[in-house]
Amino acid sequence: MPTLDDVLDQIGEFGRFQKQTFFVLCLLSAAFTPVYVGVVFFGFIPEHRCSIPGVAELSQRCGWSREEQLKHTVPKWGGRGDDFSSRCRRYEVDWNTTGVSCTDPLGSLVGNQSTVPLGPCRDGWVYDFPGTSLVTEFNLVCEDSWKLDLFQSCVNAGFFIGSIHIGYIADRFGRKFCLLVSILANFVCGILLVFVPTYVWIVILRFLQGLVSKGCWTAGYILVTEVVGPRYRRTVGILYQMAFSVGLLVFDAVAYAIPHWRWLQLTVTLPSCFLLLYYWCLPESPRWLISQGKNDKAMKIVSDIAKKNQKKMTSHVEGIKLEEEDDGGKQSPSFIDLVRTPQMRRNTFILMYNWFTSAVLYQGLIMQIGVGAGNVYLDFLYSALVEFPAAFIIIVTIDRIGRRYPWAASNLVAGAACLATALIPEDIHWLKVIAACIGRMGITMAFEMVCFVNTELYPTYIRNLGVMVCSSLCDVGGIIVPFIVYRLVEVWPGLPLIVFTVLGLIAGGLVLLLPETKGRVLPETIEDVENLHRQSAPKAKKIYHHVQTSEV
After folding, report:
1. Residue 544 included in any domain
2. Separation of alpha carbons 137 and 100, rounded Å
3. By three-state DSSP, how is residue 498 classified?
4. What count of other Cβ atoms lies within 10 Å of the Cβ of residue 502?
5. What is the pLDDT of residues 12-45, one digit of tens each?
6. Quick one: residue 79, left, alpha or beta (phi over 0 = left, psi -120 to 50 = alpha)?
7. CATH code (residue 346)
8. Neighbours of 80 (CB within 10 A)
9. Are residues 256 and 193 in the same domain?
10. What is the pTM of this model?
């Protein structure tokens, strides 16, 4: 009885049917963008200062320009208000007092300017931003700035918990059912976010969005790789991730056109209701159907694939078996197996660290855009564009050079670029943006490579468990990174980038300790994993060398 891969080789590994499935699932990948990086625009932090009663009237009476008003009435104003006092403190004086001097207002009120007491912003803030964001609506600045960190951490906490449960649903009830349920839940949460009036409910709904959205994206990734042949599986997986990059460009354009966060949320959520048409457009995974013993339904989908691809199946193909059925005995996966032997321990801990680092640097560099001094829309655009050459470099190099060296280099480049970005003066903003884009390209490569290299370093029976455990550190990194960026930037704007530098350089060095998997057969047992690092060349080359030696 042939395997599904044998049948796909006959009816088309990436024909018209698979291309159509791939295209409609890429829409799902692109739609995930606002959930994953939406904090840049939903939680944009504009320049701000205390709202002070009486200042506007005094400025109008004195005929001050905007800069003169800020210089006279805002503590330590330096042009961009980059000091905590200028953003979160105000002079404790009564600006409505009659007889205030227009040339030296503080001197006329208190005499000695150096002794003017400072107090908190009791009357709110003034924001230099024509639109609205979570920050401006709920005043998430100064003493309440941590609430923005919590907003983003909650969605990553949802990713962490939801990935496990959504993965179970996908394995238990099918990829298609999982997709439809999670798309509907994500749509409902996204719409409710537009209308809820309080910060607490926004955080709760954001958590629920995270609970279903990443698992939905992952289910789409699994489905698109399960309907194509093995020769196209890795390329399709990389291109599916590239669709996310296309989503970044679209999201940036929409955010530029709609600078009000609730309208923006509504605009990016409404199109996702069309994804419910997947009920009619998408097939169930034939691999999952076979694993559940539903061969008749799997054969019907295989027949549809052959018909759509204009191929004919041989008449003797009456059923399909899973590749795993060839194994003589089945092993039960265990968490202990991930650290049972020296090489398994090394692989597990290095992969966990690299998942963590990739998430911290990738999300951190995106969040850094929102707190930088440049144009947030242009900087976001530039950093999104570099993801396309990153995917191209991966496709070109992984089967020529291998996995280990490009992966290590991408981490090292990302770390070095973060250091350069931190040290370049703000006056040379264009050079700062270039360095940040190089860092973004490096960490994008590292992120995409850890996704598929992870599967190549574990034996078959524990592969899914290994990927699930290691990739969970990605979400842990996502929970932590808002606090790294938004808290440390108040100490020094470049401090988060220094942290990213250290993490990236260590990750690059650790990758070099992993075995090269280019040209290797996927390991079936723990013993195969232990032998990976001892092999200096692919098996085929060793056999060829042995034959040559024997002939001599």
Report:
1. no
2. 33
3. helix
4. 13
5. 888 888 899 999 999 999 999 999 989 899 999 8
6. left
7. 1.20.1250.20
8. 11
9. yes
10. 0.84
